[in-house]
Every structure is written in structure tokens, then in C-alpha cells.
Design brief:
Blueprint lengths: L1 H33 L1 E4 L2 E4 L8 E5 L11 H9 L5 E7 L10 H17 L3 E7 L5 H15 L5 E4 L9 H16 L7 E3 L2 H4 L2 H6 L8 E8 L5 H12 L4 E7 L11 H13 L4 E6 L26 H11 L19
Parallel strand pairs: 3-4, 3-10, 4-5, 5-6, 6-7, 7-8, 8-9, 9-10
Antiparallel strand pairs: 1-2
Length: 339
């Protein structure tokens, strides 16, 4: 009897050890799956897989803070199948980061922490159009210390520089990257280019050198940016510049006008051919075509179809793999005054 009891105890311990070992292996595999690196122009993970992340950007936190919460993120991951979320932390408008950094970071942390909990990649987006180098360096030093050990965090250090030169953007990017790399040696950093992230071809002629795991943001709005803009990106890719589509949509760059299904499909085909990651703009209820939620749409989701605008329906279908190509504009966007 004593011998039988000992046998039971030893068996239980062995089972427990096997279970722990299994959990550790699963954790190791998840860590390798989530840990990103850039090889050539391609985003990869530590398992050696090619990585193509897809998702949505939240709107400016200063205007639409109600979507900066854990339940909204859970909906976007579970119901929309996002593998990437972008938190557009507003920098300059009145009341944004420059005026109230504590509230801006509170909104941001809600999103980043929720994404990490869901094992989903997240972009910390310095959503600025103007130079704020001093503030950006202070901010990203904090972010790198707080999140540099998480494989899920990506830094976008300058949303969209406006009319400026590559030399100027390059200098800013170098200084912010150097600050981040003091605390975080490896997470992916997205670099900007002049004219709202359009000039990747100019950046490709004189890229930042001496850094690993940096990629260049390309933004497009298919109602305006078409073959000529893909030509610039093709030129950049051919010269070895890694491209990341950190913001895109299907109408004019003002976020207005009809969805151009035909031109957006051309972009999607190009994105998939090149295995690029992409983010659609944006989860917001503003009176514009590029906002995905109707003004009466609930905050946390899941959203019924009549709570989404046409662009929200399309983006959700794309992310779920349910989209069926539409070759013409099929209906008008419902216009309701808001904001
Ligand atoms: Mg790191």
C-alpha cells in the first residue's frame, strides 16, 4: 500500500513537471512569434515566419477618447480579427499631449496594456504634424523604459511631417531613435518621411544608417494616392527600404468623398504581393467618410452593421477575410452633423 502511494505521488509530480514544461514551451513559442525583426525589407518574427500585421487606428485621442479602453480593444481583436492596433496619441491640438501629458498617457496606456494582455501588437503613435523633438525624446524615453521589454510594442515616432525636407526629418528621427535605443535595443521603430509620409523614394536615396529594426511609414488615401504613389514605394522597396503602411484609407486624404473600391483594391493587391503590414484609419464617429463608426455607434462594440459607416463595414470584412470585391460605389455615406 505504501509502495502504491509512493507510485501515485511520483506520477503526480511527473505529470505536473510535464505540464509546466508544456506551458513553458508554449510561452517560449508565443514569445518568438511575437518578437519582431526586420530582415531586408521584410518584417519577420523569431520563428522565422514572414509577418504581415493588419488592423485599425483609433482616431485622435483628444477627440475620441471614448474608444481608448480595454473593451473596445477586445472587440477589435476578437470580433474584427485585428492583429495590430494603432493608438493615435494626439500631440498638438489644444488639450492634447503638450497641454496635458498625464491624460494623454492615461488614454494611451489603456490601449497598450489591453493589447499586450490580448497578445496583440500595438503602435504607440506620436500623432503630430509638427516638430516637437524635445517632447518626443522625453516621451519615447519613458515609453521605451516602460514597454521596451514587451514584444508587442511598436513605436511610430512622427505621424506625418508636413512640408519639410528629408534632411530635417532624418535628423529628428535619428535623435529620437538614439533616445529609444538607450533603453530598448530591438523593438520596431517606424520612421516618417516628408509630405505626410509620401516621400519614401527620397528617403530611399539617403536612408538612415547604422540602425536595425527600423521601417519607413507609407501613408495613402486611395481616392488620391494611386499608381504614381505606389511607384515611389516600389522604388524605395527596390532600393532596400523596409515599408510599413501605418495609415491608409480609401477616399480622399481629407477623409471625405466616396470610397474608391477599385483603387483601394489595387493597393491591397500591392500590399499583399509585398507582404506589407497595414493599418486602416480610423475608429471614430466623425462626420467624414474615413471614420468607421456612426455617431450613434456604441463605444465598446461589438457593433451592429447599422452602427458602422460604409468604411467600417468594409474594413471589418477585410480584416475578417470576408470582403467580396465591389467595383463601384454602391451607396452614399449617411451624413449626420457631429463633433
Ligand atoms: Mg525591446
Amino acid at each position: 500500500m505504501k509502495r502504491f502511494f509512493s507510485f501515485l505521488v511520483v506520477s503526480a509530480v511527473l505529470l505536473l513537471l510535464a505540464s509546466c514544461n508544456g506551458n513553458k514551451q508554449a510561452d517560449d513559442t508565443e514569445l518568438k512569434r511575437a518578437t519582431l525583426k526586420v530582415e531586408g525589407t521584410q518584417l519577420m518574427n523569431e520563428l522565422g515566419d514572414t509577418v504581415q500585421l493588419k488592423g485599425v487606428s483609433l482616431g485622435w485621442h483628444i477627440f475620441w477618447p471614448r474608444f481608448y479602453n480595454k473593451n473596445t480593444i477586445n472587440t477589435l481583436v476578437d470580433d474584427w480579427h485585428c492583429t495590430l492596433i494603432r493608438a493615435a496619441m494626439s500631440v498638438e491640438p489644444e488639450g492634447a499631449y503638450v497641454d496635458d501629458s498625464i491624460w494623454a498617457k492615461k488614454c494611451l496606456y489603456e490601449v497598450v496594456d489591453a493589447c499586450i494582455e490580448k497578445k496583440t501588437h500595438v503602435i504607440i503613435d506620436w500623432h503630430s504634424h509638427g516638430y516637437r523633438e524635445k517632447e518626443a525624446k522625453e516621451f519615447f524615453a519613458q515609453m521605451a523604459q516602460k514597454y521596451g521589454d514587451s514584444p508587442y510594442v511598436i513605436y511610430e515616432i512622427f505621424n506625418e511631417p508636413e512640408v519639410t525636407t528629408w534632411d530635417s526629418v532624418k535628423s529628428y528621427c535619428r535623435n529620437v531613435i538614439d533616445t529609444i535605443r538607450m533603453y530598448d535595443k530591438d523593438n520596431i521603430i517606424l520612421v516618417a518621411s516628408p509630405h505626410w509620409d509620401q516621400d519614401v523614394d527620397i528617403a530611399a536615396d539617403s536612408p538612415l544608417e547604422g540602425y536595425s529594426n527600423i521601417m519607413y511609414s507609407l501613408h495613402f488615401y486611395a481616392g488620391f494616392h494611386q499608381k504614381w504613389h505606389r511607384g515611389r514605394a516600389d522604388y524605395a522597396l527596390k532600393k532596400g527600404l523596409p515599408i510599413f503602411v501605418s495609415e491608409c484609407a480609401s477616399m480622399t486624404p481629407f477623409g471625405t468623398g466616396d470610397i474608391n473600391y477599385v483603387e483601394f483594391q489595387k493597393w491591397l493587391d500591392w500590399i499583399n504581393e509585398n507582404k506589407l503590414s497595414w493599418i486602416a484609419w480610423s475608429v471614430a464617429p466623425k462626420n467624414e467618410t474615413c471614420s468607421m463608426i456612426q455617431p450613434w455607434g456604441n463605444t465598446e462594440g461589438p457593433w451592429k452593421e447599422d452602427e458602422l459607416k460604409e468604411w467600417g463595414v468594409m474594413t471589418r470584412e477585410l480584416l475578417r477575410g470576408e470582403y467580396v470585391y465591389r467595383d463601384s460605389v454602391v451607396k452614399d455615406t449617411i451624413v449626420v452633423e457631429c463633433q
